[in-house]
Amino acid sequence: MIGTRSALRYAKAAVQKAIEDGQLDVLAQDMETVYDTVQNNRDLEAVLQSPVISAELKHNTLQAVFAQCSPTGKNLLRLVAENNRTKHLDGISFKVKELYQEHLGLVEAVATTAVPITPELEKEILTKIASLTNKKVTLVNKVDPTIIGGFILRLDDVQLNASVAHQLNTLKQTLRSNAKSWQK
Fold this sequence. Notes:
This protein is of the alpha+beta class. It has two domains: 5-102, Peroxidase, domain 1, CATH 1.10.520; 105-183. The protein has eight helices and four strands, in the order H-H-H-H-H-H-E-H-E-E-E-H. It has helices spanning 5-21, 24-40, 42-49, 55-65, 71-82, 89-104, 119-132, 164-183; strands spanning 106-113, 136-143, 150-155, 158-163. A four-stranded mixed beta sheet has the order 2-1-3-4. Helix 1 (5-21) packs across helix 6 (89-104), helix 2 runs antiparallel to helix 6 (89-104) and helix 4 (55-65) packs antiparallel against helix 5. The chain is elongated, with a radius of gyration of 21 Å. The mean pLDDT is 90.
């Protein structure tokens, strides 16, 4: 439910209110906790998704689970529960994080590699990306051994696939199309 318009509307309203109140950093931190918790707890996610459980019970559950949240975060959780939008809570919290980063001029680049990136290589990648954008870039490294080698770099809506698996796939497709033309 991360990409829903409803999630974006709630996130925009919450971020705007937090900016007005000077609580944006606190809200972003709360929503990071909410997102991680919902993503890693299938039982909580089932409660939030259930149409059978009342909004009041969902609200009480959220207040208990996220008791450490700030009043700003708790207020958003209350509003989401009251309006029966708990099934979008992961999306709302994710969008708050995105809007927070956008507000700060940050952009997240995701580098998928077969092995973890060394600090030296991370610094080199960040320097190269910084020359392409005027925003502050943070690098997230995802390890996926199935790409065999190389990397896949994703920055906003742009993806550069320089993985060995992709190159092998491209070569395989080229050989197949050439084999078909040879058979004619």
